[in-house]
Amino acid sequence: MTTSTPAARPSSVFTSASSRRFGGASGPAVAALLALALSGPVAGETRAASPCAIDDRDREVCLEQPAERIAALSPGATELVYAAGAGEKVVAVVAYSDYPPEAQEVQSVGSHTRMDLEALVTLSPDLVIGWMTGNPPEQLETIEALGMPVFYIEPRDFEGVSSAIERLARLAATREEGERVAAEFRDGMAALAERYADAEPVSVFYQVWDEPLMTINDEHLIGQVVSMCGGVNVFGELPRLVPRIDDESVLAADPEAILAGGMGEENRGWLTHWQQYPSMTAVERDNLYFVPPSLIQRPTPRLLEGSRLFCEQLDHARGKR
Amino acid sequence: MVMPRRSLWPPLATLALLGLAALLLSVTVGSAAVSLGDVWAVARGEGSPLARTLILDLRVPRSLSAFAVGGLLAVAGALMQVLLRNPLADPYVLGLSGGASVGALAAMLAGLGGAVITGSAFAGAFLSTLLVFGLAHGTGSWTPSRLLLTGVVVAAGWGAVITLMLAISPAERLPGMLYWLMGDLSYSRSPWPPLALLLLICLLLLPLGRSLNVMARGPLQAAALGVNVRPLEWTIYLVASVLTATAVTTAGSIGFVGLVVPHMLRLVLGNDQRLILPACALAGGALLVLADTLARTMIAPEQLPVGVITALLGVPTFLYLLYRSR
Please, which residues have CB within 8 angstroms of residue A319's CB and are 6 or more apart in sequence? Predict the structure, then answer.
């Protein structure tokens, strides 16, 4: 991680278009000087006058002043912004932003695949959190062209989650809260990893979806949870991140445990499907476990809770040998 | 030619007014509340920065793109119907949108965005045009039915490739791809190239109106009446392809406009290509502008694909006209 520098540096975001709309026509340098001159007692030593952070596309995004109006364009980004302690600054979310519950009160700007740009512009956010593979690139480009800085996030591993929280906290000047939450997550995951480092391997099938039947490979965040808990993902070697498979390949792999999400938070319907194959090891030993999808399928601090549950269930399966 | 001699201007002026009204409506309506007063202020070069962004950066370019795309598709459809002498012909019948879609989806699958998708879609459309043209031309004669069959089979081939790409693409890219296939104006960038092309083609087609009228009656009669059929057919095919390729690369494959607008106008105005082609440009544009306005406001902030609305608006209108004309 790079450290934040109070001096504004030119970046891809800070092009002519952005400075036109967001104050200072003379650019970030002047704004930074002004901020330094004016900020004396207000700015604590942790508050950068013009915060900068590197986003997940490796671009440095600098703001003239800490973000006050944040638009989060994915349910995951919303959770991360709240986790970073900047929940009160969120002015726009997208559909399905259901956690934390307060986020449901924030105005939605449509689905993450197709935002209502008019609604977004009307809310005049000073920081937009984009989702690299989820939001349409054309719309994000338009948002940038209209002068709203876009910060792309897409955590691909556990460290990505904690660092995203820290970076968001830096941009929103809520570093204290953000660093606390990030450290909590980082330490929690490290403790889990240490605890299960020498655990007996358990072969695992994790079901993401039922029709079509989908699982995850080792590179997927859930795949990383499987490995951390001492599990061996039977489809871990497949090339696609979210491979589509069939019942036969699951039967052939004969996993010791099957873990699945489902529609909603307590629907075990997908697991009963496997009970038609009593000869499978997982069914024979009754190692069919439900994991609430919202705890494990979003790269947010709740992943720690989901991982704990996941590891406990694998441990439970070990106990049945 | 026995063709009732009608003045071209009254219907065209009416349609132009309709198009203008549609454009005005689309600029004043949106999910963000902007009053007529604000629109007027912005038009005079004043108004708040927010209203200026909303109107000048978001609504006007999108409305103009919608108008251009609708016009291009309707004109291309009318030309295809003349060329193939088949009422079911639309701009996509010869596989052009399939080629463009494969190009666009391939770019999306590779994780590329923006201008690359546009370029790749245009390349796909161009490739499909050459393929169909070359295969239909072959070594022997070049008949409309042979062209149609070649086009339909090539289109079916593209369809299979599209399905394959959708099946193997990662889940997170699917929504973008599906929206592209359904047609969506939020992809459009600058409205000026399609608008300029539309105007240019309408002017170019004006002197060809007579020959096109004769062509619509069949190649033999056209030849007997002194029209040089082969070059004319090539011209129509190429012009329609360029129009469609531009429309598809601007906004994805928006269905329905190219098939139904020419028919609607023929039912009302008669089958005089000198009138129908410019009328298609205006009416197609107006229809798509209205449809897009509805698509982005009906359940805002959720955005609907515009193709849904063109069909929902067009089907009842067309059925009514057809019923009335018996």
Answer: none
B59, B113, B301 ranked by CB distance to A110: nearest: B301
The alpha-carbon gap from A109 to the nearest alpha carbon of chain B, in Å, equals 5
Query: Which among A220-229, B248-257, B301-310 has the top mean pLDDT?
Result: A220-229
Asked if B302's CB is within 8 angstroms of A110's CB, the reply is yes
- CA-nearest residue to B190 within chain A is A142
A133–B179 CB contact, under 8 Å: no
- What per-residue confidence (pLDDT) applies to B161? 95
**pTM of structure:** 0.78
ipTM: 0.73
Cross-chain Cβ contact A118/B186 below 8 Å: no
Please check whether residue A180 touches B, CB under 8 A.
no
Taking CB atoms and an 8 Å cutoff, what residues of chain B touch A145? Answer: 57
Tens digits of residue pLDDT in A170-185: 999 999 999 999 999 9
**DSSP annotation string for A31-64:** HHHHHHHHHTTTS-TT--SS-EEE-TTS-EEE-S
Q: Name, in order, each residue with C-beta under 8 angstroms of B34's C-beta and a sequence gap of 6 or more.
A: B28, B51, B54, B55
Judge contact between B282 and B12, C-beta under 8 A: yes
